[in-house]
Amino acid sequence: TGSSRGCFGHPPGCSLTALPPPPSTKTELPAPYGPWMEIAHDLPQLIASHRLRSHVHQLSARHLRGREELHLAHLVLSFITMGYLWQEGEEGTVKVLPQNLAVPFWEVSQALGLPPILCHADFVLANWRRKDPDGNLDTIISLPGAESLRGFILVTLLVEKAAVPGIKVGGRCRALWLFAHPESALRHPRGYPTPTRLLRGWGKGWKDNPAMPGGLVYEGVSDEPLAYSGGSAAQSTVLHAFDELLGIRHSEESSAFLRRMRQYMPPPHRAFVEEIRRAPPLRQHVLSSGDARLRAAFNRCVCALADFRSYHITIVTKYIAVAPPSALETKGTGGSHIFSFLKSVRDTTREGVISA
Ligand code: HEM
């Protein structure tokens, strides 16, 4: 036709040579946009089967299959989010997480029952792989400061691993032995891991954080800003499980914080801790048995747990000696004093001992 309107509606005079040049000679977008192309190619079938809308809704997370992939996706998206937010440090924060990150992060979080922020379950539990046949470990995802970060993540993972027998046997407390010797797990070959930017920057959340007073808008998810606490080993299931098992009762303020941290655990972990809580109390059983050996064994477990917490306080003290205290002050505990929290939790653990 020679007209720039193309030949739609003019079949007789339409000739291929007269078509305007196409905008591109390409017919496929590059790999990252594979999901767009798949939907586009499938349009006739998707529309005929009324599935196009649901495919569009699930565009971002639809290729993830099962919990393992979802956990890995949460790990990846949470690290990208932390990097995005804290790239310029505390002075250069943003108020909005862009929707190309916020929406898939939200979807994956909803599917897992985890909050859309870096949690202990990402940072430590999902973030390791075997480096060689000898069983040496490495992290999967890292951030600037990789060396010290790796030490911190893997040491914490070893503490988790050391707790596994204790978790498995539940009532049989001898597995708490490692907690009586925490230095064996907490010692790092090159000295204490000093996660210089971890607590100072990357792990911080946007709840009670003066650097982000309004929280964070997850674009495409909610117009209102949302507030979430940063990652903390206070979200580790093992200590919560031992506390419940041994019937440790923390002060109201400390338990409020620790209870809130349970919302940052994967739901099956949370359910496990709650199950221990609901089970017939071990402490009561030991008391009513009148068995001195049983009581001594129970008390050794309580002391091991208190010793672990004392040792942890030593580490935090050493860390604060090399990192600015302001780094930790607003973290997790809502700006209250970290040491009074950690000491109160340690002291109430000690009070769990059954006297003769
Ligand atoms: C340099 C190393 C470490 C530092 C600086 C550190 C710092 C802290 C801080 C500041 C808190 C208070 C809660 C918060 O504000 O989030 C805390 C709590 C906690 N940390 Fe660490 N931590 C370190 C290593 C570890 C390791 C290796 C573990 C092992 C699992 C651990 C387990 C815990 C637990 C369970 C809590 C909750 C309080 C409790 O139940 O006693 N921390 N830590």
Short descriptors:
mainly alpha, 18 helices, 356 residues, elongated, two-stranded antiparallel sheet, Methane Monooxygenase Hydroxylase, Chain G, domain 1, single chain, disordered N terminus
How would you characterize the overall build of this protein?
Helix content is 53%, strand content 3%. The protein is mainly α. The protein folds into two domains: 16-57, no CATH class; 66-350, Methane Monooxygenase Hydroxylase, Chain G, domain 1, CATH 1.20.58.480. The strands form two sheets. A two-stranded parallel ribbon has the order 1-4. A hairpin with a 6-residue loop joins β2 and β3. α4 packs across α5 and α16 packs antiparallel against α18 (338-350).
Give the integer mean of the pLDDT values.
82
What is the overall number of helices?
A: 18
Order of helices and strands: HHHHEHHEEHHHHHEHHHHHHH
The SS-based structural class is mainly alpha
Spell out which ligands are present. Answer: protoporphyrin IX containing FE
What characterizes the major β-sheet?
2 strands, parallel
* Rg (CA only): 27 Å
What is the overall silhouette? elongated
Number of domains: 2
Unreliable spans are 1-13, 171-178, 187-197, 329-336
Keywords: Heme, Iron, Metal-binding, Tryptophan catabolism
GO molecular function: heme binding; indoleamine 2,3-dioxygenase activity; L-tryptophan 2,3-dioxygenase activity; metal ion binding
Pfam families: IDO
Region (Disordered): 1-27
